[in-house]
Input
Amino acid sequence: MLQPTLGHVGCSTLAEVALTLCAMLSPLTFIHAADIHLDSPLHGLSRKDEAFSQLVRGATRTAFARVVDLAIEEGAAFVVIAGDLYDGAWKDQSTGQFAVAQLARLTRSGIRAVISFGNHDAESRVTRHLTPPEGVYMLANARCETVLFDDLGVAIHGRSYKQAATTENIAATYCPPIKGLLNVAMLHTALDGHEGHANYAPCSLAELQAAGHDYWALGHVHDHVVRSTHPHVVFAGNTQGRHVRETGPKGVVVVRAVDGAITNVEHRATDEIRWANLRVDASGAGDTIEALTAIQGELRPIVAAAERRPVAARVSVVVNAALARRLHADPSFFETEVRGHAAGVSDTLCIERVKVAARAEAGTDGLPAELRDLLNQAMTDPDCRRAIEAAIAPLIGKLPMEIGDAETTPLIAFARTGNGEAIAGAARSLIEARLGGATD
Output
């Protein structure tokens, strides 16, 4: 620390000391991004509403452009991207060209970037990369690398994936922190496990906390989560939600540090479209109109919270058993009615799917006793399960591969696994919903 003696220095020395002190005390800003998934499709939209799908096409590109805009507006010194810049192998060169163009916008503004690659853009999946602009550093996968920004007093440590399914603890191979610098470590990991994400590059929170780095910039988990503040261990989340399980604001983290210490961590939205999973209790509705009115009322605050972004919503509505039977008799008609009421809320609101369930009656699952016994037998009898598997296999083989995701067509998805018990379970859930026993 400088300790000048004022009686023995000249004006020029005082000015230099003042500038040095200002530099030390002024905040250093950087952006932590991850899971951009450039050109990833937004699942579940194109089949439902082509006009809305056209509106949001290119949402992942818009989100990345907003990351760059934010870095420039905030005067960031650098940007770190902790894996999955790309969604996989490029369909054409335009994906890489767009990425390079956005990175060039950063470097023209004097902002550097450090990129590590994760499971979606591992070397085994994306074998060619366009030459990045000067000032952009892409980390290798053979070992941990350290990028030094001496003028900023920053050391950035990280390692890319070679294989998509990286199951070793690569955090254990990381370079140690450099004393006297702000140490940022980039890691694409599920940490100690996160629902819905493969357990890649597993490690423990305690292990990262003990490593000595000031900030762990994590990727892979698509939710923004701060796992620790001493030191900071942070998932940025993805920059754009891709389906209905990725709801709420998506974006990046703006990080500020003073004199080598993290002082502020703030999540900022960059998404172009917002997803919502809406559950409506309309069990008191006496008819279809009352149920639709209840749904419309619940949609309004979701649209308001999206701050003028387009919204794609899944609607799960619970009604009484009698109304559920009427709605299940013609589900496409009711879904069309829901879409019409959604249009009355906003012309940038898309209904991704409508699910109708009956209010469960106390003491019953809503199924006739004979049918309940038959389904229970199908789930427990090995011969019955094998018969189900044998009967379904030839039919499944004739279906196009794009049909059958676990969210929209669970029966087909389970049938492809050849798991008779899972097929019977999915069938039971569907039958319960149709007959009024399910609550979801």
About this structure: The CA atoms of residues 37 and 386 lie 40 Å apart. The longest helix spans residues 288-305. The first strand starts at residue 28 and ends at 33.
